[in-house]
Structure formats: C-alpha cells, structure tokens
Design goal:
By secondary structure, this protein is an alpha/beta fold. It has 15 helices and 16 strands.
C-alpha cells in the first residue's frame, strides 16, 4: 500500500500561566528544564524512527504550552536532529505556536534562522477586557507589536488564533476582533468558539457565555466578514488566503500520519499491512524527564470498525471534503461500507451527492455530530 504523508508534532508543556479555559497538557513552572527537555525529545525521536518507513516530513508543528518560551537554539537543535534522522520535503511547513506576550524580535529572528517558516500567534481577542477574562498574559498592544516583529523577522506565513463566544461578548465585539485581525493581513486565521472543557477552571467556575442565538449571530456575521476580507473557509474553524492552508492540520484531517514527541503528545502511524496504530507519550513533564523513563505511555491498534468513524470525523470537517478513494487507500477498507450511511445522509441533505467525493453539505457541517453518527459502529 501507499503510506500517507508523515508529519511531526513536538509538544512543549510549559506556560507562564495556565489559562482557565485550557485543557491541554500545560504546566506553570518557575524554572523550565529546557536543556534536559530537548535532550529527552531527541531520545524520544530516536525511538520513533521505526515509524518513519522511508518517508520524509511534510510538516512540523511545535505546540504547547508555549513553545516560544524556548530559545531559538533549542528549536534549531530539534529541527536539525529531525532533518538528519528523517529528512524534510522540499516545501516542508514548520510552525511554532507563539504567545504574543513572550514574543521578542531576537527570538523571532532566531526561529526564522533555525528553519521555522510559519508562526501561529495565540491572540484569542484584541479586546483587553476579554483577554483578562480569558487569563491571557498579553495585551492587544503586545499582539500588534509581536505581529510587526514577526514580519520584520521575515515571516511571510502567519496564523492568528481567535476565539469567539467569549464571556459577555457581543456580536459587535466579536466582529471588531475579526476586523482588527484582517487589518493586519495575516495569511491564515483560526476562528473558533470558546467551549467549556472538563478539568478546567472554567468548568468548575463557569463564566457567563453568550446565549445560543447570539452565538449563531456571531458565527454568521463573522463568516461574512472573513469572506469579504478574502479568506476562504476550508475547515470548520480554519480560514486562509489562497495557497496558505495549514498543511500540518490538513494532514490530520486527511487522515495522514504523524510522529509525536514530548510530554503527553499523541501520534498516529499506518503500517504497510494496513494496521493503524495510535500511541501517546508520558504526560507529566517530571515523569517524561525521569532517569528511568518510558517515553511511550500507551499504544493500540485502531479496530477496523473504529476506522470508519475516525476517518470520517476528520474528513468531513473539511468544507470540500476528501476524494472518496482516499478512504480505501488510508484504511484498507472497501468503499462499499460507506454506501448505506452515505445514501441516508444524502437523502437528509447532510452530505453532497457525489460518487467520487466525501463531503458534508453546509447543513451537514452545521450539524456535524448528527452527520457522523451515521458512521458510528460500522
């Protein structure tokens, strides 16, 4: 079989302060053991090399936590090791998540020299009152300064992460955030609704969020603003100018493979016999760095009956969907297993009637959970 494209995810688990809405594996620390952690990451990578199976890396993503707390030399050491051990595609996309409150020109220029070619700023809002409510450490002014510094450092591919549906946010305020983002002329905007996740401060002490009808008004108006600004929606929460879709995230949604190194990172690998394996790394940074550590905390083969739903959960998030032939190529299951649920969803107006494409309609995207339910248990 032809193996899918391969990416690499690198998790940096530390933050200056834990945000009350965040359920990611991130930790506050007075001292970050940066040198020790980089050494552990490289050991971890070495143990994952059997998963490569002759492929090059098409994308790399440094997520967190706050990867921009690490020096450019550390990011460079990781990239150099990955290139020597695995190799990069000629047009490899290398993204670094960055908190505007930790962005400095020298570091940004260093990241660029190290090989990072895409910056993703965790902006969330340009409204200082909303930033305070979200527990962010930066101000709107720092966002503008960091963005300018990134451009001066030579970055020609920048993503801005924005949330909507914030505590007591009005549609006018949400629209103002988008207009300010568009005024900066980024290449990509990730715009998604705040959700309250378990095991977060907001879950134990819920803030007052906008009513459902207000959320819908925000969504409709925001999508129109983005479209008028030249941005095309290609995934539920992703918008870009032409040619600047996030290749790393596309690989997730297109059911590609990805190595995962770092505390709590999750990976997915396809083997030549069609077996799909998921694995995850030791979650707590102290355990990940322990002398007697086992980097991999667990792994399992994805059962055939689960592969249908997993594939569709990713593919149908894309506005244009994916070629139907990819289903058989990337799961080794026959396309015929999709026939009945697809026919049912077409009749309900939730999937596009196409013999060659797996694609949700606009209604199917709006009610994606209902659409996916048809593929559960096949």
């Amino acid at each position: 079989m032809t193996l899918p494209p391969l990416s690499l995810y690198v998790h940096i688990p530390w933050c200056v302060r834990k945000c009350p809405y965040c359920d990611f594996n991130s930790h506050e620390a007075a001292r970050i053991p940066e040198t020790e952690y980089v050494a552990a990451l490289l050991q971890d990578l070495d143990l994952d090399l059997a998963f490569v199976q002759g492929r090059q890396l098409h994308s790399i993503f440094f997520g967190g936590g706050t990867p921009s707390l690490f020096h450019a030399s550390s990011i460079g050491a990781i990239l150099n090791a990955a290139e020597r051990r695995i190799g990069f595609a000629n047009d490899v996309e290398i993204t670094l998540e960055t908190n505007p409150g930790t962005a400095e020109y020298d570091n940004l220029a260093g990241y660029k020299s190290a090989g990072v070619n895409r910056i993703s700023f965790g902006v969330q809002s340009f409204n200082d009152a909303h930033l305070h409510a979200l527990g962010r450490i930066h101000s709107s002014g720092e966002v503008l300064r960091a963005y300018d510094q990134a451009r001066r450092a030579g970055f020609g591919n920048i993503n801005l992460d924005l949330m909507h549906g914030l505590p007591q946010q009005t549609p006018v305020q949400a629209q103002a955030d988008l207009r300010q983002a568009l005024a900066l002329s980024p290449e990509h905007i990730s715009w998604y609704q705040l959700t309250i996740e378990p095991n977060t401060v907001f879950h134990s002490r819920p803030p007052q969020l906008p009513a459902d009808e207000v959320l819908w008004d925000i969504q409709e108006a925001g999508q129109a603003i983005l479209e008028q600004g030249g941005f095309t929606q290609y995934e539920i929460s992703a918008y870009s100018i032409p040619g600047r879709r996030a290749r790393h995230n596309l690989n997730y949604w297109e059911f590609g493979d990805y190595l995962a190194i770092g505390a709590g990172a999750h990976g997915k690998i396809t083997w030549a016999d069609g077996t799909i394996q998921r694995y995850w790394k030791t979650r707590k940074p102290a355990d990940y760095l322990a002398p007697d550590k086992a980097f991999t905390a667990g792994q399992n083969a994805v059962a055939r009956e689960q592969q249908v739903l997993e594939f569709m959960m990713n593919a149908l998030r894309l506005v244009d969907g994916v070629p139907q032939a990819w289903f058989a190529e990337r799961t080794q299951l026959p396309e015929s297993v999709l026939a009945n649920p697809k026919s049912e969803l077409i009749a309900r107006g939730l999937m596009v009637d196409s013999p060659v494409q797996l694609q949700a309609t606009s209604l199917g995207l709006r009610f994606l959970n209902d659409t996916l339910a048809a593929f559960d248990g096949l």
